[in-house]
């Protein structure tokens, strides 16, 4: 067929304008695919943060809130629950393992987590990966502290450094527990989860930090000495949340009901997967908003393409007249213009698709390190194919506008165009 | 070619209209149609080429009344039977010389067959060498890079390829200097004679008259009226 060949040659001849137009479409398609990939990446990264945990228990609250503060360290717990309750949960026959966390303190903007050494062995992230120590070992001494990878990197801490833990949260802690410094005993390898941004101490250490703070106010006078604290029985009184692994997943919902109806204390137990679904239903609004924006960016690029074709149309009246003279019908002229739009649409879309994957390949590792979002480089799935197909279809439909104009011009001009 | 009682008026061009009682050219005849600019030459040529259709009358080309054809049939008829040459800008600049010459054949299967079907490209190359353009140098060259004289000669080949019965040329020499004009008309006459076609050429240059069988003054066949303004069609 001559028309597609003519379209291709005409585009090649127009160089710069066409390249820019294709580039615009490519960028917009890149954005479209990129946003989708980031959305998927965020979801799978969130889901990967709580791999292998069957139930999360905390003081009564909404399941999303419990997930957010316990797993993602976003927001605060409404309340703690007692150590006695924790021990009862730990002793439950269905429970294979339990890891407590005690939140509420910070170090230079990073959260301090009180926990047990099981934290480092039982918790899993991203497809059942276990935590790994880049250096050192779990805390053994009361004043040992284990740093997440980002904490060590950002603050420049090394094994054996002494650091001071602040009471309360916030990057500038007014009341630092300055008389009881901790020693870095271990640094974790990066996980791409909030663990990287946490400092970990034993539950007893959390109690030790708070000796003299029982009244709630800033302690006055010389505090209890480190030696005296070491001699104390530092049994934790409360924990913020607990991660549970069950002997059999079948008992998940039974145990969840038991915990939710716990008689002595108001508790909530959530199944991480289900809580995430609830979270997605909230974030979907934002995702949809973002997608609408990207769709409009694509539309803008396509409108730009139409404007380019229309702008060139006037210069091409002579060309159309020649085609009419050699026997092309106005329908051929129409087809030529549509073919040009389709060519630009296809080139832009393919280039944008390639660009998106190239960007993911290039920037993916850095994004994973900085934000903990792993972007997957899978072959384009049905969804990407459908999105790209729709962009090409939109380009073709948009091409009808200049095509119709050229059609009408060629009817009116005939071969009598003067240049 | 035979026009009878043809009436046409442009809807938008200041009420310009043209009326032709009778104008006929015999097959194989070479006719020079002379007339000053604005005398309705281009309108007449558009009517003959079937680009525009008359409100009344009959335009018979090789026995077919093209005024009665549906628009798509008329486009096809033009592709098969008429070769058009303009004053200038005859070629699509981004296509090679060869592609420009072969262009009408894509819209006219019968003409393609007459041009040798798959051998059409070889035939076009032969034609190129005959008009003094080395096919090895010029066949693949983008038409936009040729000189105006060369372009006009290539346009002749495009009009002639596949031997359409009627060649219509609209002041094809006006963009050329004297020496090139003569060379152009020589090429045109020679090639048309070779294929036995009919030629209608419009020009205001009467010095070309000896090269034609007959010279017709436009005023003698067509009456042009204008309601207002002086825009030529």
From TrEMBL, chain A:
The chain crosses the membrane at residues 15-35, 292-313, 334-365, 385-404. Residues 292-409 form the ABC3 transporter permease C-terminal domain. InterPro entries: ABC-4/HrtB_transporter, ABC3_permease_C, MacB_PCD. Keywords: Cell membrane, Membrane, Transmembrane, Transmembrane helix. The keyword Cell membrane applies. One of its GO terms (cellular component) is plasma membrane. It is found in: Cell membrane. Residues 19-229 form the MacB-like periplasmic core domain. It is a multi-pass membrane protein. It holds the Pfam family MacB_PCD. PANTHER family: ABC TRANSPORTER PERMEASE (PTHR43738:SF2), ABC TRANSPORTER, MEMBRANE PROTEIN (PTHR43738). This is Putative ABC transport system permease protein. It comes from Devosia enhydra.
Automatic annotation (TrEMBL), chain B:
One of its GO terms (molecular function) is transmembrane transporter activity. Keywords: ATP-binding, Nucleotide-binding, Transport. InterPro entries: AAA+_ATPase, ABC_transporter-like_ATP-bd, ABC_transporter-like_CS, ABC_transpr_LolD-like, MacB-like_ATP-bd, P-loop_NTPase. Residues 1-233 form the ABC transporter domain. GO terms for cellular component: plasma membrane. The keyword Nucleotide-binding applies. It comes from the Bacteria. CDD domains: ABC_MJ0796_LolCDE_FtsE. SMART domains: AAA (SM00382). PANTHER family: ATP-BINDING COMPONENT OF ABC TRANSPORTER-RELATED, IMPORT ATP-BINDING PROTEIN. Belongs to the ABC transporter superfamily. This is Putative ABC transport system ATP-binding protein. The lineage of its organism: Bacteria, Pseudomonadati, Pseudomonadota, Alphaproteobacteria, Hyphomicrobiales.
């Amino acid at each position: 067929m001559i028309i597609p060949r003519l379209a291709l040659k005409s585009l090649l001849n127009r160089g710069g304008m066409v390249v820019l137009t294709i580039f615009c479409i490519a960028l917009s398609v890149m954005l479209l695919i990129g946003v989708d990939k980031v959305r998927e990446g965020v979801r799978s990264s969130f889901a990967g943060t709580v791999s292998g945990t069957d139930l999360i228990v905390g003081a009564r609250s909404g399941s999303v809130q419990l997930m957010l503060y316990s797993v993602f360290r976003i927001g605060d717990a409404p309340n703690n629950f007692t150590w006695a309750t924790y021990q009862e949960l730990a002793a439950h026959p269905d429970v294979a393992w339990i890891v407590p966390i005690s939140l509420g303190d910070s170090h230079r903007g990073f959260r301090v987590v009180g926990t047990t050494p099981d934290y480092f062995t039982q918790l899993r992230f991203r497809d059942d990966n276990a935590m790994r120590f880049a250096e050192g070992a779990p805390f053994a001494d009361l004043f040992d502290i284990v740093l997440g990878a980002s904490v060590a990197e950002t603050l420049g801490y090394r094994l054996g450094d002494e650091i001071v833990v602040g009471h309360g949260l916030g990057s500038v802690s007014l009341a630092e527990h300055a008389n009881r410094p901790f020693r870095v005993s271990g640094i974790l390898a990066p996980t791409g989860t909030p663990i990287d941004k946490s400092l970990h101490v034993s539950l007893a250490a959390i109690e030790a930090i708070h000796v003299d703070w029982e009244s709630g106010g800033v302690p006055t006078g010389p505090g209890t000495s480190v030696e005296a604290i070491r001699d104390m029985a530092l049994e934790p009184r409360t924990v913020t949340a607990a991660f549970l692994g069950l002997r059999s997943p079948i008992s998940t919902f039974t145990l969840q009901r038991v915990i939710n109806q716990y008689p002595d204390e108001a508790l909530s137990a959530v199944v991480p997967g289900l809580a995430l679904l609830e979270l997605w239903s909230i974030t979907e609004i934002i995702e949809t908003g973002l997608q609408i924006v990207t769709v409009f960016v694509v539309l803008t690029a396509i409108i730009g393409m139409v404007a380019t074709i229309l702008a060139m149309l006037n210069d091409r009246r002579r060309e159309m007249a020649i085609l009419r003279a050699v026997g092309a019908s106005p329908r051929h002229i129409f087809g030529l213009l549509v073919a040009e739009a389709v060519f630009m649409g296809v080139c832009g879309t393919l280039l944008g698709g390639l660009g998106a994957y190239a960007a993911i390949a290039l920037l993916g590792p850095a994004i994973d390190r900085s934000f903990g979002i792993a972007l997957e480089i899978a072959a384009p799935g049905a969804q990407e194919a459908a999105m790209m197909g729709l962009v090409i279809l939109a380009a073709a439909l948009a091409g009808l506008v200049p095509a119709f104009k050229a059609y009408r011009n060629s009817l009116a001009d005939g071969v009598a165009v003067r240049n | 070619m035979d026009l009878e009682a043809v009436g046409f008026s442009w809807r938008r061009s200041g009420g310009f209209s043209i009326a032709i009682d009778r104008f006929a050219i015999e097959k194989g005849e070479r006719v020079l149609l002379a007339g000053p600019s604005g005398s309705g030459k281009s309108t007449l040529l558009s009517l003959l080429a079937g680009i525009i259709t008359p409100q009344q009358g009959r335009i018979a080309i090789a026995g077919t009344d093209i005024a009665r054809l549906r628009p798509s049939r008329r486009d096809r008829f033009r592709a098969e039977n008429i070769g058009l040459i303009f004053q200038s800008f005859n070629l699509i600049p981004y296509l090679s010389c060869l592609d420009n010459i072969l262009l009408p054949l894509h819209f006219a299967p019968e003409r393609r067959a007459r041009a040798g079907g798959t051998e059409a490209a070889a035939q076009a190359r032969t034609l190129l060498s005959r008009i003094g353009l080395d096919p090895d140098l010029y066949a693949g060259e983008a038409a936009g890079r040729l000189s105006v004289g060369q372009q006009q000669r290539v346009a002749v080949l495009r009009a002639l390829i596949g031997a359409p019965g009627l060649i219509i040329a609209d002041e094809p020499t006006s963009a050329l200097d004297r020496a090139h004009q003569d060379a152009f008309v020589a090429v045109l006459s020679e090639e048309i004679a070779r294929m036995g076609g009919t030629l209608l050429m419009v020009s205001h240059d009467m010095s070309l008259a000896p090269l034609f069988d007959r010279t017709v003054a436009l005023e003698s066949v067509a009456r042009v009226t204008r309601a207002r303004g002086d825009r030529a069609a």
